[in-house]
Amino acid sequence: MWGRLSGNGRRGAGWAPRAAVWWRGEGHAHLHPGQVLALVLVAALWGGTQPLLKRASSRLQQVHERTWVRQLLQEMKTLFLNTEYLMPFFLNQCGSLLYYLTLASTDLTLAVPISNSLAVVFTLIVGKLLGEDIGGKRAFAGMVLTVAGITLCITSSVSKTQGKPSTL
């Protein structure tokens, strides 16, 4: 996972993740099916909770205190005693923990685009289910193109791990 690199990309001076030099052939950008599932779950936890957090935070009461310390403490109390806000927040943080754990065994060149782009798709889907206006046909087309691109990345990566040549 980690290789010793010099400033010109060759082994030598400093330490850097091998995923950072995948284009030189030293690292291999591939995913296993369990890693893909973990990244999709991360995206679902991140994206699925965003509309719920937005909805819950819009319903919170405004607090006004005299000092910034008391204001901060009152706002934290208001947030953490509100289960409508706390549950999506907890699930979102579970997604962050899973992402952190998954990154230990996954190449960044695939993990970051998969989790972040699919999070947007999940945000749009859950937002639509909650009755939000997500943008109509253009948003739907964007979701389809995003999923198609991520599918290409995953199938290319999985075929590399199985020793099959990629068709791309």
What keyword list fits this structure?
168 residues, two-stranded antiparallel sheet, disordered N terminus
Give the secondary structure arrangement, pairings included.
Blueprint lengths: L1 E4 L8 E4 L15 H26 L9 H13 L2 H21 L4 H22 L7 H25 L7
Antiparallel strand pairs: 1-2
Helix pairs in contact: 1-3, 1-4, 4-5
Verbal overview:
- By secondary structure, the protein is mainly alpha-helical.
- Helices cover 64% and strands 5% of the residues.
- It has five helices and two strands.
- The protein has helices at 33-58, 68-80, 83-103, 108-129, 137-161; strands at residues 2-5, 14-17.
- The protein has a two-stranded antiparallel sheet.
- The protein is flat.
- Residues 1-28 have low confidence and may be disordered.
**Principal-axis shape:** flat
Would you identify the regions where 5 or more consecutive residues have pLDDT less than 50?
1-28
Mean pLDDT: 80
> How much beta, percentage-wise?
under 5%
Assembly classification: single chain
Count of alpha and pi helical runs: 5
DSSP helix fraction: 55-70%
How would a crystallographer describe the biggest sheet? 2 strands, antiparallel
Distance between the termini: 25 Å
Summarize the structure.
With 168 residues, this protein is mainly alpha-helical. It has helices at 33-58, 68-80, 83-103, 108-129, 137-161, and strands at 2-5, 14-17. A hairpin with an 8-residue loop joins strand 1 and strand 2.
